[in-house]
Specification:
Shape: globular
CATH topology: TIM Barrel
Strand order of the largest sheet: 1-2-5-6-7-8-9-10
Number of strands: 10
CATH architecture: Alpha-Beta Barrel
Strand content: 5-15%
Number of domains: 1
Distance between the termini: 30 Å
CATH class: Alpha Beta
Order of helices and strands: EHEEEHHEHEHHEHEHEHHEHHH
Helix content: 25-40%
Structural class: alpha/beta
Number of helices: 13
C-alpha cells in the first residue's frame, strides 16, 4: 500500500467527548504510515438518562437522545495547542460543534475563525444520518436547511472546504434517493463552495446495486463536489468482504481527483493501521497517478492547501 497516506476523516473524540489524545494518535499514525490527518471533534454528545443503569458510549448503545455540544471544538483546539509546531502541521482541524438547524450556527464558526487561524475547514457536519437523525434532539438537519445558507456562504468566501454527512436516502425507502435533492439544491446554489460528501452519502442499509451510477452523476453535475470513501461506503459498497467491485474501481479511476480515504475512527486509535489497511486492494488496483491522488493528493490539496495558487 502507498506510504504517506492522509487520513481524510478522523474524529478525535467520541460521543462522550473523550479520546486517546493527539499524542497517541501521532504514534498510531507513525505505525500506520499515515503522513497527516484531517481531524475534528464530535458535534453531538450522547445523553445518559437517569433510568439507564449502563452508561452509553455510542449513539446506538441505547435509545437515549444526543444533543449538540459546541465545546467539542475547544477540545480539539486545546489538544492541538499542546503539540509542538511540527506536530500540529500534520493535522488539518475542522470546526464541527454547531447546530446546523440553528440560524445562529454560523456565529459559532465565525468566533472560532476569529480566535485562531489553525482551522482548515468545517465538518463533519452531521445531517441526514440513519438512526442518529432520529435520536438527535432538534429538528432534522438536512443539506438544504436555511440555517446552513450563511455557513455555505462563509466557507465559500473564505475558501474553506466543507465536509458533510448527508444520507442519499432513508433505509425504509429503497426505490430511489429520497434525500439526494437536498444536497443537489445546496450544491447548485453554491457552485464556488468545495464540498466533501462523507461516505458518498451511504449509511447503514442504504446500499443499492447501481449506487455507483448515481455517485458518478453527482460528480459530473457538480464540479465542486468530492467524496470520501470511508466507513460503510467502502466496506459495503466498494469492497464488500475484501472483494473490490470492478464498477467502483473504474469509477474511482475515472474520477481519481475527486476521491479520498479515511479511517472514520471515533476518539480511539489502536485500530488505525488495520482500518486503513482495508484500502489496500483499492490502492493497489489503481494506476499510480490515481493511487497518489486518492491516498493523499486530493486531501492534501483540499484540506492542506497543497498545489493551490
Amino acid at each position: 500500500m502507498a506510504s504517506g497516506l492522509i487520513d481524510a476523516h478522523l474524529h478525535v473524540v467520541d460521543f462522550l467527548q473523550e479520546g486517546d489524545g493527539l499524542t497517541r494518535l501521532l504514534r498510531a499514525m507513525d505505525g500506520a504510515a499515515v503522513e497527516r490527518a484531517v481531524i475534528f471533534g464530535m458535534p453531538l454528545q450522547k445523553k445518559w438518562n437517569g433510568f439507564d443503569p449502563i452508561e452509553p458510549h455510542y449513539y446506538l448503545d441505547d435509545d437515549a437522545h444526543c444533543y449538540y455540544y459546541a465545546y467539542t471544538d475547544q477540545l480539539v483546539l486545546d489538544a492541538l495547542n499542546d503539540l509542538d509546531v511540527s506536530q500540529r502541521q500534520r493535522f488539518a482541524p475542522l470546526i464541527c460543534g454547531f447546530n446546523p438547524t440553528d440560524r445562529h450556527g454560523v456565529d459559532h464558526i465565525e468566533r472560532l475563525l476569529a480566535r485562531s487561524n489553525i482551522w482548515r475547514g468545517v465538518g463533519e457536519v452531521l445531517l441526514r444520518h440513519d438512526e442518529l437523525s432520529h435520536l438527535t434532539l432538534e429538528e432534522t438537519a438536512r443539506a438544504n436547511h436555511p440555517a446552513l445558507e450563511p455557513v455555505y456562504r462563509l466557507c465559500a468566501d473564505r475558501g474553506l472546504p466543507l465536509l458533510l454527512h448527508q444520507n442519499s436516502s432513508s433505509e425504509a425507502h429503497q426505490g430511489g434517493y429520497l434525500y439526494l435533492h437536498e444536497l443537489q439544491e445546496a450544491l447548485e446554489r453554491h457552485r464556488d463552495l468545495t464540498v466533501v460528501w462523507s461516505h458518498c452519502g451511504l449509511s447503514r442499509r442504504l446500499w443499492q446495486s447501481n449506487y455507483h451510477v448515481m455517485v458518478e452523476g453527482m460528480l459530473v453535475d457538480h464540479p465542486n463536489l468530492l467524496v470520501d470513501a470511508s466507513w460503510i461506503a467502502y466496506d459495503e459498497a466498494m469492497c464488500s468482504q475484501g472483494q473490490l467491485r470492478a464498477e467502483w474501481l473504474e469509477l474511482i479511476e475515472r474520477h481519481c481527483h475527486r476521491f479520498m480515504i479515511g479511517s472514520d475512527l471515533i476518539g480511539h486509535f489502536a485500530s488505525l493501521a488495520p482500518t486503513l489497511a482495508r484500502y489496500k486492494p483499492l490502492l493497489e488496483a489503481l494506476s499510480e497517478p490515481a493511487r497518489e491522488l486518492v491516498a493523499r493528493g486530493n486531501a492534501a490539496r483540499v484540506f492542506f492547501g497543497e498545489g493551490k495558487a
